[in-house]
């Protein structure tokens, strides 16, 4: 039986994934900053669900969650770093404290979780680490520079982590969703306190008061959860699992544009070698 530790399970994709894993008979350590929001899972699955409080920016809570989950189920097989939220601002508008908190949550919180579970995974020579990213890391929309940056950071980290862990029998992978019908663009979305008029036609169009995408996203979180479970259970999990037709199209468009630019500038790029 597989044991999952999933961060950010109160709503959205984290919640859907926890429910899907429990429905298939797996153990789930379901965590949220407010544990009362996931305690209903223990009522429905008293033998296989463990609800715990976890703020990933609190190193004490990180270690406590891993310890409790390990004591209860014997070990953590799959870590899913899902906790997080959206943040929108033109780069010039971003508040320093907001940006540091964003990185503390999405990046450093994930790193702390990874470091907490890896010793036991290494000792068993098995395990899977799943880090949630976003198609925003690829398409870098105006107004999402800081969010794209933090997700790009977790993708870069995961790429190196995957190479370090593969010889040890452990997998690391990124999940890169497009738009899904969660609270991400609604209740969970944060933004800079102030807006600069010069960015009204770029970053300004994506501020909460101007964005109408919430509730119309094309992705189904239940189907996303099923896709993640399929990938984790695969004999050869992908390095990057892209979720949603919107995301796969956008991802491919970016790759083609980058390749075209590389070819356009190839002569200049290759003109920099030392003359022999």
What would you say this structure looks like, in words?
This protein has 276 residues and is of the alpha/beta class. It has one domain (3-248): Rossmann fold (3-Layer(aba) Sandwich). 45% of the residues lie in helices and 15% in strands. The protein contains 9 helices and 9 strands. The protein has helices at residues 12-23, 39-44, 59-73, 96-124, 136-139, 145-165, 221-233, 245-264, 266-269, and strands at residues 3-6, 27-32, 49-53, 78-81, 87-88, 127-132, 170-177, 190-191, 240-243. The strands form 2 sheets. It has a 7-stranded parallel beta sheet, sandwiched between helices. A two-stranded parallel ribbon has the order 5-8. The chain starts with a strand and ends in a 7-residue tail after the last helix. The model has no long low-confidence stretch (mean pLDDT 95).
Kindly list the characteristics that best describe this protein.
9 strands; two-stranded parallel ribbon; 276 residues; single chain; 9 helices; Rossmann fold; alpha/beta
Residue share in helix? 40-55%
Give the CA-CA distance, first to last residue. Answer: 61 Å
Order of helices and strands: EHEHEHEEHEHHEEHEHH
Please give the largest β-sheet: 7 strands, parallel
Strand content: 5-15%
Task: Give the CATH topology.
Answer: Rossmann fold
What is the tally of helical segments?
9
- What's the assembly state of these chains? single chain
CATH homologous superfamily identity: NAD(P)-binding Rossmann-like Domain
Mean pLDDT: 95
* Total number of beta strands: 9
The CATH C-level name is Alpha Beta
Q: Looking across the biggest beta sheet, what order are the strands in?
A: 3-2-1-4-6-7-9
- How large, in whole angstroms, is the Cα Rg? 20 Å
What structural category do the secondary elements indicate? alpha/beta
Shape: globular
